[in-house]
Amino acid sequence: MKKYNVVVLGATGAVGIEFRKILLERKFPIDKIRFLGSSTVGKQIEFGDRTVTVEAVGDDSFKGYDIGLFSAGAAISKQVARRAAESGCVVIDNSSAWRMEPDVPLVIPEVNPDDVDWNKGLIANPNCSTIQMVVALKPLHDYAKIKRIVVSTYQAVSGTGLKAIEELGIQVKDIVQERPVSQRRVYAHQIAFNALPHIDVFLPNGYTKEEMKMVNETRKIMGDDSIGVTATTVRVPVYHGHSESVNIETEKKITPEKARELLENAPGVIVEDDPAQNLYPLAINAVGRDEVFVGRIREDESISNGLNMWIVSDNIRKGAALNAVQIAELLIKKGMVK
What pLDDT, in 10s, does the model give residues 10-56? Predict the structure, then answer.
């Protein structure tokens, strides 16, 4: 089997840690591997039977490397992604930097795999909340054409990063031990035992950047600008796993029974939908899993062709690192990596 040289940018962040884990778990065909970081330069990391030292990004960081897995933020990606692609390294970027660029494919392998065919050395990984929703909605859209989506998210703090995970833990301990909350640096308000309808910055239209990501990315991935999408994104005191309440209106009638049948046969989806037995997707059960879980599938009785559902996935895994690695695997399968 041919092996490839892989570089991971942001190797010590929450997604970077998951990149490393998934590459090993899936036995990705690696020859050489390089880890790049900023604050952790010089740190030695065990990777399988190797010890890899974290390096700073330099002019030659990507020369001789075939695949770049990026998760270091939009600002850094804007600086180096094009340069890396020009050096012959196919970049799969997890930040928001390139998602809406017309010449950059925005890819979910279960949904629009053929979009990688027109990449020019740079492929964008969608937003975590968008990925899990679209994986579940694509088979329904193919069958009945979705006209409108209303989504409310309940997003874990791991989506913000390691510092947010730490902050939630500190705040919970403070409250349980009846002490004043001692740390509030990551979020504008206390996150422990709270819900914040505020993810990313607010835009002039009153929506947050996170909400508009879901609107615009969904249309691009589905290849249908006619779909109406409105979103409210909420940060909740959960460590891992995003949950979403999703309502769709379709052109063609689709019953809950038919929706379950379509989803049970959809790649990357597991249906958990037996409320009588208290069976429905839970964030704590999605952690460490590759799939998107769907349940609470029921008719929206307020309109003729409407469905409600509850969608859950591991935001750091399928919502970020796994999707990127799956894109890399897809490129190899298509013979698009030199």
Answer: 999 999 999 999 999 999 999 999 999 988 899 999 999 999 999 99
And the tokens for 16?
A: 């970077």
Q: Are strands 67-70 and 90-93 parallel, antiparallel or unpaired?
A: parallel
225-269 pLDDT, tens digit each: 999 999 999 999 999 999 999 999 999 999 999 999 999 999 999
Q: Give the DSSP letter string of 72-123.
A: S-HHHHHHHHHHHHHTTPEEEE-SSSSTT-TTS-B--TTT-GGGGGG-SSEE
SS3 137: helix
* Active-site position among 89, 128, 141, 240: 128
- Region label for 73, one of left (φ > 0), alpha (ψ between -120 and 50) or beta (otherwise): left
DSSP annotation of 55 reads: B
Whether residue 181 contacts residue 192, with contact meaning beta carbons closer than 8 Å, is answered with yes
Cα gap 299→309, rounded to integer Å: 9
Distance CA 194, CA 190 (A): 7
The three-class DSSP label of residue 211 is: helix
Question: Which among 20, 93, 76 has a CA at the least distance from the CA of 324?
Answer: 93
Candidate list 89, 141, 240, 242, residue with the active-site label: 242
Catalytic annotation present for 141: no
Please give the domain boundaries of the chain with CATH numbers for all domains. Answer: 4-125+320-333 (3.40.50.720), 130-314 (3.30.360.10)
**89 labelled catalytic:** no
